[in-house]
Amino acid sequence: MNWLNNVIRPRIRSIVGEQKDVPDNLWSKCPKCDGMLFHKELKASRNVCYHCNYHMALSVKDRLHLLFDEGAYTKIDLPKVPHDPLKFKDQKKYVDRLKASQTKTNEKDALVIGKGTIGGQNTVIAAFNFAFMGGSMGTAVGEGIVRAAQEAVDANSALIVIPSSGGARMQEGMLSLMQMPRTIIAVDMVKEQGLPYIVLLTNPTTGGVSASFAMVGDIHIAEPGATIGFAGRRVIEETVRETLPEDFQTAEYLLEHGMVDMVVPRDELHEKIGTVLNLLMNTSAKGDNGKGKNSKSSKNANAKGNKAGGAKTSGTKAKIKTAKDVSKKPANEGKAKEQPKSAKAAQ
Ligand SMILES: [Zn+2]
Question: 141 with 207, same domain?
Fold first, then answer.
């Protein structure tokens, strides 16, 4: 008889109680600082490392929940497109890859479209799902962006696209490249209506996505540390035969070089985008959200910006500066101009 195992162990157990197995999925590790992160706390900080502020990937569902007012939105289905037009096969058949991703993500393709309000302003968001084949842009994604743009125009809403993508979907060959001009035309539709088109650049925004709709926004907002670029770092270094700076192709580097208008931490995104939308859309009295008079005046305001042609970007930048300056109480300022008496009374 093994005295240690059969007598001592049960007795100790009876004193300290049966030790439950600790589930090993309670913790994860920050890829940047190697800090241990408790899942519950990580979820509360919206997948931002609470040791070093590294912004990890956020699921599309959580992203939309974070951005829309009260997390409420209506999902818009992706239009149907022909699957696997080229009958492509590498190690696996493309149709099989598609099916696997569809099962994994419970989505039809790498884009999710939602409609709701941000800061009280009607908004359509088209967000990429990196978990679906690296957020690659094929026919379905291109068609989805056209659909989102159409929806924004029909409902007089702002359009926000959130890329998180490796670029074109190789399995669709030429057809995936065709989505680059298509998405440009789609977002132009929104701009022509004088509605704001905002791009929220998340990690990573690369390849054909960054070479099309993602870089033509009225305003470019980026998450801290996001990789944003076209070709990879090594390819560029080999081509230009120069060593590139450490922070090359990061959100902060692009901000310094004028490609991005602002870098906003995840927990401030909802408020910041709300402020920007209110400045761009809410040119009349408060409470008149994107309807009637308001939409017309916002059209005029934006049309002026568009007519300025080359100066368009600087025009939007001037607006952003204003956004920072008045970010605290934009609505009240508008009121103050129209109704000086009541504003004074309120003060
Ligand atoms: Zn960290």
Answer: yes
